[in-house]
From TrEMBL:
<dbReference type="GO" id="GO:0016301">
    <property type="term" value="F:kinase activity"/>
</dbReference>
<protein>
    <submittedName>
        <fullName>4-(Cytidine 5'-diphospho)-2-C-methyl-D-erythritol kinase</fullName>
    </submittedName>
</protein>
<keyword id="KW-0808">Transferase</keyword>
<keyword id="KW-0418">Kinase</keyword>
Amino acid sequence: QDALPMLSCKSAELLASYEPQRLNDLYAACLKAYPELSTMAKEGWFFSGSGSSFFRIKAH
């Protein structure tokens, strides 16, 4: 039920509105296993849903 409002949002909107842990259930476990990755998060990088890659929102 909490996910319903997310369905109409664009990716950039979701990433700006929600904490990474809320959008990706692997996020906390990944940072626990690899704490150095928290630096990437502070630089505006996000994990993909599978956690296999990173991405940033393209500036317009």
